[in-house]
Amino acid sequence: MLKLLSTRWHGLAGNTRGVLLVVLAMLCWSVLDACNKRLMAEGIAPRQVLFLQSTVVLLMVAPLIAWTRGRVIRTRNPRMHLLRAGFIVTSAGCAAWAVSHLPLAEASAYLMTGALFMLPLGVWLLGERPHWLRWLGVAVGFGGVLAILQPGAGAFQPAALVALFGALMEAMLGVVLKKYSGHEHPIAILTWSQTACWISFGVLSGFALPSVPPALWVLLPIVGLSASGIYLSYFFAYRAGDASAVEAGSFSLLLFSPTLGYVFFAETPAAAFWTGAGLLVCGIALVIVEPTGRAG
User: Fold this and answer.
1) Helix (H) / strand (E) containing 189
2) The whole model's pTM is what?
3) Cα 202 off chain centre by
4) Residue 269 in 3-state DSSP?
5) pLDDT tens track for 103-162
6) Could you tell me where the DSSP H helices lie in the chain?
């Protein structure tokens, strides 16, 4: 049975597998944000939640590291991990802070703009030459962001700018992953990324784990699995297909996050959110399309 499933999986086109893996990453992302938001509702600071999250992930991978005697996390490019460390700590901090101050669906929509930031960053840092239609998609997508932001309106949330900066840092992570991590083991990427978070947020938290109510202990393995799932799914998605194509799977975040926000936090997005989300989806769709061939 497993062999049959493996054969069918590898029989799919690379971009199709990549899109499905990004959908899995978005599911993990929305679940992780919901769990973190629930923990922060108990008065746990975002930095403590992130310290707890990285601790759980490292405890989960520790047996594998011990079993391989550290071979699985050996790296050929320590500078790449140091570069990623700066981006991931900043991105994680911004995302957690935004989730604690915004409805889950709205925070996720802003964080989803990382797919739009990838285009100018790809031109600047990766030497890509995209079709004009992709630039139009960036304009449309950020028009959607402005529709959700409502700049100048009384409902404007400064936390939205923090989320957008986090999305920019997430896009930088994608650039580094695409450019430098071709020969790295996925567990090495996961471990060193979480080690950077553990050290950084541990210092900010005094290396003191927060007190989690016993009723919420069930969330801890979910947090660990979700955080790991995001990294591993993106890693294999980028290996399976073109980075700009597999980002089509990020649309699913606008399905998962509003659903979890409504079910667990009774959050109902306003009409402005759905207008902006629709424009954001159209923008990312245009970014993905390449009518005259792939980007260079």
Assistant:
1) helix 186-204
2) 0.81
3) 21
4) coil
5) 888 888 788 777 777 767 766 666 666 666 767 777 777 777 777 766 555 555 778 889
6) 2-11, 14-40, 46-67, 78-101, 104-111, 114-126, 132-149, 159-180, 186-204, 219-240, 243-246, 253-265, 271-288
